[in-house]
Amino acid sequence: MWLLSVLVPLVRLYLCGVKVLLYQMFNRSLTLPVLPKQNGRVAIVTGGTRGMGFETARHLASLGMHVVIAGNEKEEGTAAVKRIHEEGGKGKAEFMFLDLTSLKSVRQFVQTFKARGLPLHVLVNNAGTMLVSETQTQDGFEFHFELNYLGHFLLTNLLLDVLKNSGKHGCCSRVVTVSSATHYGGVMDMDDLNSKRCYTSLGAYSQSKLALVLFTYYLQEQLTASGFPVTANAVDPGMVDTALYDNLWSLTQTLKKPVAKLLFRVCF
């Protein structure tokens, strides 16, 4: 029984991965839509120092937005901001410290942001981790669950009033949450959210992504029912060759490289 409880979710996850790779194999072309200028609007991008988060922050800044890059690596954040400014975009970028594995840090980040009196038009919940060995955060939660889900859940709810006040009908504020197709293989065990009974890193990751999707659906339902000018969406970027795969075993890393070169999407 224990073996089945481990193997079945893993098989589901790998099948999801195969489906995504097949889709990307036959749908290679990605055309970035032409977006209108966003001068004077403010965005927060978590995990915006590298990978997809950085590309998102850079593009939003190029549209004229004031982008707050939220992350837990100050040196990387400073370098990301410098790079964006050197590209000569019309927007502004800055770094603010945020550790999503600490609910205290999330609250401090929101308190600091709100004290500045800035509006907030776009919140991109992008930061995440994958394939981490069994670890608990200082708050006592499983690492994937807090970093990928709980931190973003708290961040979004604490910033919701600013998002509501900044949006208007016809020009809504947005919450965009980066999830993954692996959520299809995720299982929410409400009696064991910390995955203590049977831990696998892929299982913990897929559970955190499923939690993000469920939260996004519920949030959108509540926003629509209340008539607030805010939209909530979850997005699956597909398989992208980023640092998210750095925790793979050495042999798996070696095997992954040729596959990633051929089939994974690339952050430039």
From TrEMBL:
The keyword Cytoplasm does not apply. One of its GO terms (molecular function) is oxidoreductase activity. It holds the Pfam family adh_short. InterPro entries: NAD(P)-bd_dom_sf, SDR_fam. Keywords: Oxidoreductase. The keyword Cytoplasm does not apply. Belongs to the short-chain dehydrogenases/reductases (SDR) family. This is Dehydrogenase/reductase SDR family member on chromosome X.
